[in-house]
Amino acid sequence: MALQAAALLPSTFSIPKEGKASATLKDSTLSGISLSNHVKSDFGSSFKITSQRKLSLGAIRAETMVASPGATNAPVIRKKMLRKGCVVITGASSGLGLATAKALAETGKWHVIMACRDLLKTERATKSAGMPKENYTIMHLDLVSLDSVRQFVNNFRRSENPLDVLVCNAAVYQPTAKEPSFTAEGFELSVGTNYLGHFLLSRLLLEDLKQSDYPSKRLIIVGSITGNSNTLAGNVPPKANLRDLRGLARGLNGLNSSAMIDGGDFDGAKAYKDSKVCNMLTMQEFYRRYHEETGITFASLYPGCMATTGLFREHIPLFRFLFPPFQKYITKGFVSEAESGKRLA
Ligand code: NDP
Ligand code: PMR
């Protein structure tokens, strides 16, 4: 992947040339901003969870003992049946997240925790999608607030469900915004939501994933082709570029620092693409740090161009009108939400 994200990266962060990107980040300073302190303090408490979670998902792992009658020392054959997997999907109230939740819930093999900011909207969406009630739970998560992320993690832990898969899907895109808006903690909104919120969520829930006894544990982040400069789509201006991360290091707050990661002038479309580069790099770094020790699969996924989703709600009407046929007939990159949902599922 040619993620030409940073022209001038500090020594803590390096991307080798020739397409194979890998990021090296010093412990506890992943972003170089106070988020790391939030994470450190949360790690303290998350380590307390040592007891095995109760598996409250209906079809639990069943162990069948088969012994031949009369043979006292006969070997005991344990036949293991796979319990239902438990997957958390952020932003599952519409688009890709909803389609993925539906696809997984309909298999009957998964219980889907839909982590959403608008509970009513999500409930309505599940009903109109006809999702089987017993296979999903809706829980509140607003990625715009790191406190909400911590609250979600606490609530999830209280629910005593195991965590087998985490899918970081939610995102906002503000291509027409003239001025930046900010998260509860004062970070630029798209990077704050798409990247920092998911980063904290992933760091906290990593402990829960580690405890899962499910055969394939996964942490997946939805990436985008538009953050990838070895593609045509990734070369459409404004291009993603993190440079030396100076805006991020100074807090992305638009007051004593730029609202952009690279320290430049605010551009909503670039902020979104930068956030996606961060998401993809995060998965590479998680893989490097934690895969061998935990067996967890870390990946980012580009689902295809779903030109009709709510992601483009803030774009100008002409764009929303032309974008679907442009992607269908010209780039041929168009994919329906249902198809992308199956891919991600
Ligand atoms: P949608 O707008 O349909 O879905 C985005 C979801 O994110 C919604 O459920 C939205 O909730 C949720 N969300 C937004 N902000 C927050 C927040 N603060 N807290 C919690 N949830 C939030 O868009 P898509 O389905 O298209 O996007 C899904 C993913 O796919 C994104 O990561 C996007 O970057 C990625 N992607 C999309 C492409 C496309 O062509 N559409 C192409 C490549 C990647 P609410 O309903 O409340 O607004
Ligand atoms: Mg892009 C093969 C060519 C291709 C693909 C697969 C996409 C996907 N786009 C392609 C090409 C082009 N686009 C070209 C040639 C242009 C100039 C006319 C172009 C323009 C364009 C715009 C203005 N494209 C866009 C926008 C957006 O606002 C979308 C965006 O960048 O959102 C962040 C977008 C997209 N094009 C795509 C995909 C998948 C998107 C949405 C990306 C995302 O949601 O992450």
Q: What's the level 1 CATH class of one domain?
A: Alpha Beta
Tally of separate helices: 9
Strand count, sense and barrel status of the largest sheet are:
6 strands, parallel
Order of helices and strands: HEEEHEHEHEHEHHEHH
Low-pLDDT sequence parts: 1-72
- Percent of residues in helices comes to 25-40%
Placed side by side, the strands forming the largest sheet appear as 5-4-3-6-7-8
Strand coverage percent? 5-15%
Distance between the termini: 23 Å
Q: What ligand species are in this complex?
A: NADPH dihydro-nicotinamide-adenine-dinucleotide phosphate, Protochlorophyllide
The fourth-level CATH homologous superfamily of one domain is NAD(P)-binding Rossmann-like Domain
User: Judging by the overall fold, what is the CATH architecture of one domain?
Assistant: 3-Layer(aba) Sandwich
Computed Rg = 21 Å
Sheet/helix structural class = alpha/beta
Total strands:
8
Question: What would the CATH topology of one domain be?
Answer: Rossmann fold
**Arithmetic mean pLDDT:** 83
Gross geometry: globular
